[in-house]
């Protein structure tokens, strides 16, 4: 039975930047998707697995990209978005996400007829990632003509519906849908859940009420509605249901369900920050360091600030205080405390635009990257013992793009991959935390693909991890996570999920995965 508080209407992730930002994709307000039927569960063909060469500069991948079109149709506030693990204020920054994070050097977006994707532009031999668990990735398939690691789906812009913030909500308030392009990043990922066109919350409420009427519950009807609405739309459904029928929809649904199916439905209905605050609360009390790393080391500054606020509001406790008192290990604790400050450098919208026009090197500080690489060497391999504070200061503060440049400079000057350096200097939870960050700097969807693989492999299923990753990434980058999973393990994510789940629990997860 799920223990997290449900029915909370607050907790959406706040915006990083005000409106009229030409760095964001064009997302007309309250419209359908012209190139794809909104209810068909569109999934783009998988791109080639990107290979990263530690001696290769980002600039060689980007070149001088085309200018990103102005997006004057980006909807007005509020921008409560469930996604965007990228960062601001950085020379070369990606974001925590690039925590869960952003892929290293995606080529600049270009417009494709009908929203079709281009294939990767380079075909390098396979190499071993220097990231989490040092997984060996298979040889990518032969490339097709064209270039571009990530698609720019102009016809169906990626969506990241977020939970709205309702502190002073007026009757009839309906939050705006958002684009799921990662805030302050160069990547455009796709979720598998997009806002349905011609959304009618009143009709959905009537259908949900009918599904729960009388003896028994029509679970398939619940899944058809709940798994195919964005988080913003689910918040509207909750509001309309209580307005129409005078009772809380989530409590009503929860009373009809049980087990992991109930936990999944509650997770879908909860506001993103509230759900992740609950997940952190549970993980801190149960000593589940993996879940703590997964959340705090893969989110944007805006998301972490929202989680801090939701944690305080829900539990009347300070998240940093709880970490300080419940986490063992000085170095691991230091990494987490740094993360909850939500103060990592992130690319500004102006830097994003500049990088698209002039290349990624235009927003990277190479001198700083070389200085940081030297500082890391002197703090680790270049001395007896390890200066843990120097590692923490650089990893916690620098943007993801800047960190990637630092890793390149370290490899170039000292001839060693940064992940191997971490393995030789640290151990336990601290080592795992740094490897999470390194993996997300290089390719965040790969980190989440590996998290799911571990959840469904071996004896038993880590259901809470499986639910959390699928639900929280469903409107951000789950399409890319599915692609990485196929490339890394030579089988589909849906196949492995279906093999470890059953019944309505299986059906709702597969409905999210599309």
Q: Give the SSE order as H and E letters.
A: HEHHHHHHHHHHEHHHHHHHHHH
CATH architecture of the domain at 443-513: Orthogonal Bundle
For the termini, the CA-CA separation is 26 Å
The largest beta-sheet arranges its strands as 1-2
CATH class of the domain at 443-513: Mainly Alpha
Average pLDDT: 75
Biggest β-sheet, characterized? 2 strands, parallel
How large is the radius of gyration?
22 Å
What name is given to the CATH topology of the domain at 443-513?
Annexin V, domain 1
What class, by secondary structure content?
Answer: mainly alpha
**Strand proportion:** under 5%
Tally of helical runs: 21
Protein name: Annexin
Biased composition (Low complexity): 64-74
GO molecular function: calcium ion binding; calcium-dependent phospholipid binding; phosphatidylserine binding
InterPro entries: Annexin, Annexin_repeat, Annexin_repeat_CS, Annexin_sf
Question: What does this 3D model show about the protein?
Answer:
With 514 residues, the chain is mainly alpha-helical. Among the domains are: 197-257, Annexin V, domain 1 (Orthogonal Bundle), CATH 1.10.220.10; 443-513, Annexin V, domain 1, CATH 1.10.220.10. 47% of the residues lie in helices and 1% in strands. The protein has helices at residues 58-62, 201-211, 219-226, 231-245, 249-256, 259-269, 272-286, 289-296, 301-315, 319-326, 330-339, 349-358, 366-379, 388-397, 400-414, 418-425, 428-456, 463-473, 478-489, 493-500, 503-513; strands spanning 88-89, 345-346. Strands 1-2 form a two-stranded parallel ribbon. Helix 7 (272-286) packs antiparallel against helix 8 (289-296) and helix 13 (366-379) packs across helix 15. It is elongated, with a radius of gyration of 22 Å. The two termini are 26 Å apart. Mean pLDDT is 75; it is low at 1-44 and 46-184. Keywords: Annexin, Calcium, Calcium/phospholipid-binding, Metal-binding, Repeat. Its main location: host cell. Residues 1-76 are annotated as: Disordered.
């Amino acid at each position: 039975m799920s223990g997290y508080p449900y029915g909370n209407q607050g907790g959406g992730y706040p915006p990083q930047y005000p409106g009229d930002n030409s760095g964001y994709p064009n997302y007309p307000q309250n419209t359908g998707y012209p190139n794809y039927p909104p209810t068909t569960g569109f999934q783009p063909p998988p791109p080639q697995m990107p290979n990263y060469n530690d001696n290769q500069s980002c600039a060689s991948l980007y070149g001088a990209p085309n200018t990103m079109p102005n997006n004057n149709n980006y909807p007005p506030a509020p921008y409560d978005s469930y996604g965007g693990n990228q960062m601001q204020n950085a020379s070369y920054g990606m974001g925590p996400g690039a925590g869960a994070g952003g892929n290293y050097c995606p080529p600049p977006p270009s417009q494709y007829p009908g929203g079709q994707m281009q294939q990767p532009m380079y075909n390098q031999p396979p190499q071993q990632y220097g990231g989490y668990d040092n997984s060996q990735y298979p040889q990518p398939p032969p490339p097709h003509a064209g270039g571009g690691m990530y698609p720019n789906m102009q016809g169906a812009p990626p969506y990241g519906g977020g939970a709205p913030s309702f502190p002073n909500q007026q009757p009839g308030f309906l939050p705006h849908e958002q684009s799921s392009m990662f805030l302050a990043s160069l990547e455009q990922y796709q979720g598998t859940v997009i806002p349905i066109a011609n959304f009618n919350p009143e009709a959905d409420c009537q259908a949900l009420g009918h599904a729960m009427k009388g003896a028994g519950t029509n679970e398939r009807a619940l899944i058809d509605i709940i798994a195919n609405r964005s988080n913003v739309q689910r918040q509207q459904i909750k509001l309309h249901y209580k307005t129409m029928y005078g009772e809380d929809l989530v409590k009503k649904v929860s009373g009809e369900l049980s087990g992991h199916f109930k936990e999944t439905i509650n997770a879908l209905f909860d506001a993103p920050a509230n759900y992740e605050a609950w997940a952190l609360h549970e993980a801190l009390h149960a000593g589940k360091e993996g879940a703590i790393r997964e959340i705090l080391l893969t989110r944007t500054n805006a998301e972490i600030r929202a989680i801090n606020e939701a944690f305080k509001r829900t539990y009347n406790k300070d998240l940093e205080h709880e970490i300080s008192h419940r986490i063992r290990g000085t170095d691991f604790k230091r990494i987490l405390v740094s993360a909850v400050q939500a103060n990592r450098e992130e690319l500004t919208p102006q830097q994003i635009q500049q990088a698209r026009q002039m290349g990624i090197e235009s927003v990277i500080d190479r001198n700083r990257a070389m200085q940081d690489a030297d500082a890391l060497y002197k703090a680790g391999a270049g001395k007896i013992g390890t200066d843990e504070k120097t590692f923490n200061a650089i990893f916690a503060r620098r943007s993801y793009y800047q960190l990637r440049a630092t890793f390149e400079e370290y490899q170039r000057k000292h001839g060693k991959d940064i992940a191997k350096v971490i393995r030789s200097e640290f151990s336990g939870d601290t080592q795992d935390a740094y490897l999470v960050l390194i993996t997300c700097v290089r390719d965040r969807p790969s980190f989440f693909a590996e998290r799911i693989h571990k959840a469904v492999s071996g004896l038993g299923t880590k259901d809470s991890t499986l639910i959390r990753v699928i639900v929280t990434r469903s409107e951000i980058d789950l399409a890319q996570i599915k692609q990485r999973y196929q490339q890394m393990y030579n089988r589909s994510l849906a196949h492995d999920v279906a093999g470890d789940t059953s019944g309505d629990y299986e059906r709702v997860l597969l409905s999210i995965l599309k």
